[in-house]
Design a protein that fits this description.
This protein is an alpha/beta fold and 457 residues long. The protein has 13 helices and 21 strands. 35% of the residues lie in helices and 25% in strands. The strands form 6 sheets. An 8-stranded mixed sheet has the order 5-4-3-1-6-10-11-13. Strands 15, 16, 17, 18 and 20 form a 5-stranded mixed sheet that branches.
Length: 457
């Protein structure tokens, strides 16, 4: 087995439209944004894992990004997995629907083509660096418990099964509520060079990277994962790490932020406070690593397309076009007020989903891979923690010898939240934000279980 690592900075220039787009512009960089890549090669197969500090990825762009990285690394596109860390403080990456605003002259106000070019360049550079730096390695799997970062944002109200929403920077009374059901485990796959002992590591943890705010404020930061990787790399001396966000549709750091402040200094303080906790967990995991070995088998399987049933309440394309037109008119008449861009975003996002629906089913992408005794799932969009736990339980029955690393926000953010059926009755934010029907949850689980069966044999 040979492994290489690459990294490229993709911090956009000040003034770039942030994740909300339009008048929401980058005013300060709390820490840099990156593309990080790990190249893995055995005698039979090759795979490039890429993690970009973006809030999401979308099909038209992802197709180009995969081709770009594959060409740079000497691979096929089906040998590349692209993941968004889902940091909320980054440039707007909805270039796919920005074109719908071209008739109104708002496309580049919404999503910057300059930032897109920077991302493409960064992806290619990091892919080439990872492939070019590959060297013989051995592998180990390790874990550690993370404390003081994740909390469940679906907080019971005391009214039956109903829940309320705990945002990423909630008021004090919601920060005092219990952290709820989370997965506190950091899962790591480590690669150690046979030449000089240098470490490359994949770190997987299930929590929204939104310490700096789920409101997508005008700041750039890799959030607690970026800070945690930087601190851990410094303390490990020469190690190179990549973060993979796990299933966290209902998990965020809302309990553990220290204030409701919108000020950059307070957000930076929380990012590095929780980042230090993440770094501590990484160091504990690395120090516990044993069982180093050299796996020879790398297997990859794809579900493309993966089809998910759409809610019958999602309007048809023509109605969505009229909704967008009306929202843009209100926005322009209001002089571009921040309060008026919400309807534009909602219309755009629903419009974008509608364009990828065939026969009432949204077309998306997923994959799975096995490297020795470690299995990965690569799922689209905002997956609930429950999905990952159900897959882990199913795999443990068949193959208790395998370790499972679940990764969300891969390839495509169009599906938005993929919500367990019971959550629709409980209420809260996520069921109102999705355009998928309740049965989509089971469809995703069945598809991922099928991919696991393909690679685990």
């Amino acid at each position: 087995m040979r492994v290489g690592y690459g990294r490229s900075c993709i911090t956009p220039p000040l003034g770039t439209p942030c994740a909300l787009g339009l008048e929401d512009r980058l005013v300060a960089v709390l820490d840099d944004l990156y593309v990080r890549t790990v190249y893995i090669e055995t005698d039979e197969e090759r795979l490039l894992l890429a993690a970009a500090d973006l809030i999401g990825l979308y099909p038209e762009d992802t197709s180009e990004f995969l081709r770009c990285m594959a060409e740079a690394a000497g691979l096929r596109p089906d040998q590349v997995v692209l993941h968004a860390t889902h940091t909320h403080q980054t440039g707007n990456s909805r270039w796919d629907v920005a074109r719908l605003l071209e008739p109104y002259g708002l496309a580049e106000e919404f999503s910057s083509p300059v930032f897109r070019d920077l991302v493409v360049e960064g992806l290619a550079k990091a892919a080439a660096e990872a492939a070019g730096s590959r060297r013989p390695c051995e592998m180990a799997y390790c874990e550690a418990i993370v404390s003081g970062i994740a909390s469940n944002r679906r907080v019971p109200t005391g009214d039956g099964d109903k829940v309320t929403f705990r945002s990423s920077r909630p008021p004090a009374e919601l920060r005092e509520k219990p952290e709820g059901w989370i997965d506190p485990t950091l899962r790591m796959v480590l690669f150690r060079s046979k030449d000089d002992g240098t470490l490359v590591g994949l770190a997987n943890y299930s929590c929204h990277p939104s310490v700096a705010g789920g409101d997508e404020g005008p700041y750039a930061t890799g959030d607690f994962p970026g800070a945690g990787l930087a601190l851990a790399e410094e303390r490990l001396g020469g190690a190179r790490l990549l973060h993979l966000t796990g299933p966290c549709g209902e998990i965020n750091p809302g309990k553990y932020v220290t204030s409701e402040s919108l000020a950059a200094k307070d957000r930076r303080k929380d990012v590095w406070l929780l980042g230090a906790r993440y770094a501590d967990a990484i160091l504990r995991a690395v120090s516990s690593a044993t069982g180093w070995h050299d796996p020879t088998d790398l297997v990859v399987a794809w579900a493309c397309p993966l089809e998910l049933t759409v809610s019958p309440t999602l309007p048809e394309e023509e109605q969505l076009r009229r909704e967008l037109e009306a929202a843009v008119e209100d926005y322009l008449q209001g002089g571009g007020a921040r309060a008026a861009h919400g309807p534009i975003r909602r219309a755009l996002y629903r419009y974008g989903r509608r364009l990828h629906i065939v026969g009432g089913r949204l077309q998306t992408t997923a994959a799975a891979a096995r490297l020795g005794d470690v299995v990965f799932t690569f799922m689209p969009s905002e997956v609930f923690l429950q999905t990952g736990e159900e897959l882990r339980q199913e795999l443990a029955v068949r193959r208790p010898d395998l370790k499972l690393v679940n990764v969300s926000h891969c390839f495509d953010h169009n599906p938005s939240y993929i919500v367990p059926p019971e959550a629709f009755a409980q209420g809260g934010y996520e069921p109102t934000a999705t355009s998928l029907a309740p049965e989509a949850y089971g469809e995703l689980n069945d598809a991922m279980d099928g991919l696991l069966r393909q690679v685990e044999a």
